[in-house]
Design goal:
It is built from 19 helices and no strands. With 403 residues, the protein is mostly helical. Helix 1 packs parallel to helix 8, helix 3 runs antiparallel to helix 4 and helix 3 runs antiparallel to helix 17. The longest helix has 30 residues. 58% of the residues are buried. It holds the Pfam family MFS_1.
Length: 403
């Protein structure tokens, strides 16, 4: 099942279309887990502070899977690794649903943890898009196009929750996780149809720089930190939001709709994010994303009604889109073709490792300092990354002036 090169425009378009479709199906799983993970945790766990553990374990599984998934992609090709990821997605949904049916919190947590490997594969679809087009000047556009698939996922995932959460009256929410398994199964034939470029040959890879040397460059530090903060804050707040909404008198359906609007806002801008990057630059768009994330925190501080909750989630989603796509585009400047697998893996390990650590603390922080405290506390982190982006832009100008 070896990947094949994609040199002609028709094959590039075909691969990108398939990646959009697989992103649409694979990207529907996290909204299901995030929307219901904390609520199922509250139902099955005897400890209130452990309610977000299933979501945190999903994030941990994703973080721990980034390095082995990247190794597999390098050894056997992206397509074969993606097939394995989709099969793991099927298994994870079945195990989680089984855990609900048995009222077994540990088994449910195992299911969400296993979903992390599929999540790691889905997250790398954006890098597969850059491999498919080849031309570095089109990387941002390709990333943005594949992320449009998340817009469809934003409709599929939350609607699956609304339609199937009570499909099995004896076991609430189990139907949604059976549906999660079905979505991963539907992705398999699309993945098998991919024809992506193979990994660089060993002779080419021997000229690659050590990973530690790359990780110490200012370009990598700024790109990785922007990705970590953009994704970490988004996931942290999105994990806590459904429980905060239910805790302040809003219904499960209203919480699910809030997540749906949030995920729509995450991916809808992808239609034009690539064009914005081409016009205004990667750093400017990344900075705009971080400013919008800060604005979402400010709006969340204004009240506990539906409008502040939903408005904050929408701003958070748009901010994530600009911040994360911008950071991903910045990352592609940091490595040579022979270095891409290890640099991409390190970046995603840092991003999703941070997300996992943050999500482990979201339930405890929500319980202790509340929704307002969480939103106020994230503002200094945004200010730090904005400062580094400004420093990087100034440093780049000085280097250009010295030439």
């Amino acid at each position: 099942m070896a990947d094949t090169p994609a040199h002609d425009p028709a094959l590039e378009r075909r691969n990108l279309t398939l990646l959009v479709a697989t992103q649409s199906l694979g990207g529907a799983s996290p909204p299901i887990i995030i929307s219901l993970g904390g609520l199922v945790g509250q139902m099955l766990s005897s400890t209130p502070t452990a309610s977000t553990l299933p979501v945190s374990l999903y994030q941990l599984g994703l973080a721990l899977s980034t390095l082995p998934a990247a190794w597999l992609m390098h050894r056997i090709g992206r397509r074969s690794a993606y097939v394995l990821g989709a099969l793991m997605g099927v298994l994870s949904g079945l195990v989680a649903a089984w855990g609900i049916s048995r009222s077994d919190f540990v088994l449910f947590c195992l299911g969400t943890t296993l979903a992390g490997f599929y999540g790691a594969c889905v997250q790398s679809y954006r890098f597969a898009a850059t491999d498919a087009v080849g031309d570095p000047t089109r990387h941002a556009s390709a990333i943005s196009r594949v992320m449009v698939g998340g817009l469809i996922a934003a409709i599929i995932g939350p609607q699956v929750v609304i339609w199937t959460r009570d499909a099995l009256p004896a076991t609430p929410f189990a139907g949604s996780f059976y549906s999660q398994a079905a979505l991963a199964l539907l992705a398999l034939p699309l993945i098998l149809a991919l024809r992506l470029p193979p990994p660089p040959p060993k002779a080419h890879a021997q000229g690659a720089r050590p990973l530690g040397e790359i990780a110490r460059t200012p370009q990598f530090v700024v790109a990785a930190l922007a990705g970590v903060v953009s994704y970490g804050l988004m996931a942290f707040l999105m994990t806590a939001a459904p429980m905060a909404m239910v805790g302040h008198g809003h219904g499960v359906g209203e919480a699910a709709l809030g997540i749906q609007w949030h995920v729509l806002a995450m991916f809808a801008p992808s239609f034009f994010t690539g064009s914005l990057i081409a016009r205004f630059g990667k750093r400017s768009v990344t900075a705009l994303g971080l400013v919008l994330i800060a604005a979402s925190g400010a709006l969340a501080l204004t009240g506990m009604g539906l409008i502040p909750f939903w408005g904050a989630l929408i701003l958070l989603g748009v901010g994530w889109n600009f911040g994360f796509i911008g950071a991903t585009a910045l990352l592609t400047e940091c490595y040579r073709p022979s270095e891409r697998a290890k640099v991409q893996a390190l970046n995603d390990f840092l991003v999703f490792g941070t997300v996992a650590v943050a999500s482990f603390g979201s339930g405890q922080l929500l319980h202790t300092i509340g929704w307002r405290g969480i939103n106020a506390g994230m503002l200094p982190l945004v200010a730090l990354v904005l400062s580094l982006l400004a420093w990087g832009a100034l440093r780049q100008r000085r280097l250009a002036a010295d030439r």
